[in-house]
Amino acid sequence: MKKVVVSRKVLVPFILITSLFALWGFANDITNPMVAAFQTIMEMSNLRAALVQFAFYGGYATMAIPAAMFIKKYSYKKGILMGLGLYAVGALMFYPAARFEIFEFFLVSLYILTFGLAFLETTANPYILSMGDPETSTRRLNLAQSFNPMGSLMGMFVASNFILSHLESDKRDASGELIFNTLSEAEKAVIRTHDLSVIRNPYIILGFVVITMFLIIYFSKMPVRENANHSIRLKDSFRRLFQNMRYREGVIAQVFYVGAQIMCWTFIIHYADNLGIPKSTAQNYNIVAMIIFLSSRFISTMLMKYLNARFLLMVFAIGGILTTTGVILIQGMGGLYLLIATSAFMSLMFPTIYGIALEGLGDDSTLGAAGLVMAIVGGALMPPLQGAIIDLGRVGWLPAVNASFILPFICFVVIAIYGYRTLRVYK
Q1: N or C: which end of the chain has fewer CB within 10 A?
Q2: Which pTM value belongs to this model?
């Protein structure tokens, strides 16, 4: 008998929780271009500007375990409400951050915002897995995750059309050089105030959207975990998880995947800038990459009906290895096109690694989910390292921006190994 991915009984809760995937996708991809924006507005190095990603993804690492403890003690619904509350607070803090024009204030705002995202991801992923037959859980999560890039596309669209295209600091002269760098300090101060308010406004609107979602979830009836064990025995759970090789290696693979994803999407703008393409135009390439990512996510979810998810993970990782090789070695638009094409191979990785690593964990799944959400710290650690490489200017005969993509290349090698080991070793 054919297994149903989502039953009618949980269809409405499934839709509500799935909408959250789009909501944190929006936050992720409206924030990625801010690295390049802050670099110019605040006149800082690539390394310091990449602290935007360090703060954003560092919030996941800080809050994932506390979120798991909260959810285990209370419920999935309360975890989601806590996440939405923190999300709204962080977004609304952009108002005073722009008012005082302090870069560190923006970092704190993003840090708190991602406390909320950590709660949402720690809750929503295992919640989706639990909404039906265990045999269809990975497909169900891939389906829900397919709506994440829809939110990402909206975030990119807003970043391109309502932020980057309105930044006075990104205006260029006939030769393609930034005019901002030639202005007096007084002129720069006026532009800085204008541009920080441009960055601020979408986050304020986002904060009120999140509050609306909070109220909808609060007044909705959500399924309760059957036979849920609310007692918290962290020591026992940690020991079992650490001894589970498939799970442990899954966390490592997830660290490298998130690092690869954030590096590939954040530094598309830098790669294009090295070719003389303005930020607002370069963001359109990011949008194309996300459309490819979204399309590939639906295609790969369909392929899982016929092909083993572990096999697909390995094949897609090998595809990422090949495209990033081209990104490193090919200078010019060909390298940029290959960087965009890499998104097709990244599409199934996060939910597939997640689903494989959590298989059969039982009561340890909530804490296990927190470990996989903590793996998002890869997005905090690796972009600053890539930014530091880009600051070098050149690495041997290669432009540093090309050479910096050796980091995503290494990430895809690690993921390919995990795919192979789950296919052949951890059957």
Answers
A1: N
A2: 0.78
